[in-house]
Specification:
The protein is mainly alpha-helical. The protein has ten helices and four strands. It is globular, with a radius of gyration of 20 Å.
């Protein structure tokens, strides 16, 4: 684990910030590709326009979630650290809430399909999250609970994990979650290839449900968040709500949105029957 790559004079080049930026850019690149595959002319331009807004609101939502839902017992005594996002401490789930809110606001103003744009983004979100977990691991700011069997990751001095647990091996929950994101990303690509004509909104629902199921179980092995009723942490409660919302949205889409199928542009869908 290396929190810093190198220093330029007194200024550190942090691994967390650079890997986070890489995750966002690669995720955006994948999104641009699917905008060309599933979208209409001009949709990539909309993504370029939205990207800075989604980034800003995503970071704001991620920080809000982390501070007030995950680590408030720490931040209530260290208020000056709330804005120090460069030290780590960004919640994926909060980032999705903030980014989605910004996207909905923009797309409603420009009369674009919210569900279609969400589908374009789903693969890129999964890929970006997997890389973002590498940032957490390098920074030592997201980590597992102690593993009584002696197997796990030992974080070096200077990391939050080491401050809390010393040299005790910790469950590699963050690494496993990043690997699961890659698997979910690959499965989604296979689904796109094997069957076209999924209802618009399917890809984002797939992301919302499958990722949060994985996240719920990975959190059992985490050791960096306070526990509440049922022994769950904030991420698990958020995951349960997200799965319920995703399933409800999926039922609605499959019942009400049968004529609008992913894999065609809107103009193509008007001219051609959906492929099943």
């Amino acid at each position: 684990m290396h929190s810093y790559w190198f220093w330029i004079g007194p200024f550190p080049i942090r691994s967390y910030s650079t890997i986070f930026a890489l995750a966002f850019l690669l995720g955006l690149g994948v999104t641009m590709y699917f905008a060309k595959v599933f979208g209409e002319k001009g949709d990539t331009e909309h993504w370029w326009n939205m990207a800075p807004m989604i980034l800003i609101f995503g970071i704001a939502g991620a920080r809000f979630w982390q501070v007030f839902f995950f680590d408030w017992p720490f931040y209530e005594h260290h208020l000056g650290q709330i804005v120090a996002v460069w030290n780590g401490g960004l919640s994926i789930q909060g980032g999705i809430v903030g980014g989605v809110a910004a996207g909905i606001w923009y797309l409603r103003r420009h009369n674009r399909s919210i569900l279609l744009f969400a589908d374009m983004a789903a693969p890129g979100i999964l890929l970006g999250q997997s890389i973002g977990r590498d940032a957490d691991f390098m920074n030592g700011s997201a980590y597992g609970a102690p593993n009584p069997h002696g197997f796990g990751v030992v974080f070096p001095p200077g990391t939050l994990a080491n401050e809390q647990y010393g040299l005790h091996p910790l469950w590699p929950a963050v690494i496993w979650e990043g690997m699961a994101d890659v698997i979910l990303f690959a499965i989604l690509l296979v689904l796109f290839q094997r069957k076209k004509g999924w209802p618009v909104g399917f890809a984002f629902i797939y992301y919302l449900v499958t990722y949060n199921i994985v996240r719920f179980f990975m959190e059992i092995m985490r050791g960096d968040s306070p526990r509440f009723a049922l022994g769950w942490d904030a991420a698990q409660y958020t995951a349960v709500v997200s799965v319920v919302v995703g399933l409800a949205l999926g039922v609605w889409i499959f019942r009400k949105n049968r004529t609008n199928r992913l894999g065609y542009t809107h103009s193509q869908a008007d001219e051609s029957p959906p492929t099943t």
